[in-house]
Every structure is written in C-alpha cells, then in structure tokens.
Amino acid sequence: MITFIKLGKVRALSLEIKKELGLKPFFQKNSFHYETIIDIPYVQITYTSGKWFPKRRAANVNKENGKTRKNSG
Questions:
Q1: Which of 8, 17, 15 is nearest to 37 (CA)?
Q2: How far apart are CA 17 and CA 43, in angstroms?
Q3: For position 41, what pLDDT does the model report?
Q4: Can you say how many angstroms the Cα of residue 27 is from the centroid of all Cα atoms in its chain?
Q5: What does the pLDDT read at residue 26?
Q6: Beta strands in the chain (DSSP E)
Q7: Which of 28, 46, 50, 59 registers the highest number of CB atoms within 10 A of its CB?
C-alpha cells in the first residue's frame, strides 16, 4: 500500500507499507538532494522538501508559459 500526501506546491510525504520490505533495517535514515528516506520494519517513509529546485532552466523552455519547444533539427 502506498499513500502519497502533497504538502503545498513542492513538498510531499510518501508512506509505503509492504511485507516484502521485511524487518531489517530496524531504523535507517538516508538523505539525498533534499529528500529524506526513513526505513523502519515493513514501512518506508519518503519526505521531499520544498527546498529543491532545478539548478538551471533548459534552453528550450519558453519563459512565458513554461512549455518545452521542439528542436528543429
């Protein structure tokens, strides 16, 4: 079972409960690129922070509407 909760425009919390996850690790926390993953028996909790944003905008993105232009070539 996966539950996804949106917290504002960018932040999110995901809760995954599976028998296949097993008892180990009993408690483990990993953080990577403003995302925190907590593993506890049979449950994995993922929290995505609102601090994440792309480092630079792609060159083929229209600044007015945010849509991607097709390359001609």
A1: 15
A2: 5
A3: 92
A4: 20
A5: 84
A6: 2-7, 11-17, 28-32, 35-40, 43-48
A7: 46
55 three-class SS: coil
Query: Two tokens at 61?
Result: 């993105």
Predicted local confidence at residue 68, as pLDDT: 66
Closest CA to 31 of 43, 44, 47: 47
Q: Which two three-digit tokens encode residue 20?
A: 């296949």
Residues 36 and 28 sit within 8 Å (Cβ to Cβ): no
Residues written for the chain: 73
Which residue in the block uniquely carries the two structure tokens 């599976």? 18
Over the stretch 11-69, which tens digit does the pLDDT of each residue have?
Answer: 889 999 998 888 887 899 998 878 899 999 999 999 988 765 555 555 566 666 666 66
